[in-house]
Amino acid sequence: MIKLTIDGQVIETAAGSTLLEAAQQAGVTIPTLCHLADLTPEGACRVCVVEVEGARGLVTACTYPASEGLVVRTNVNLP
Question: Which of 21, 24, 58, 71 pairs with 14 at a CA distance of 20 to 30 A?
Answer without folding.
Answer: 58
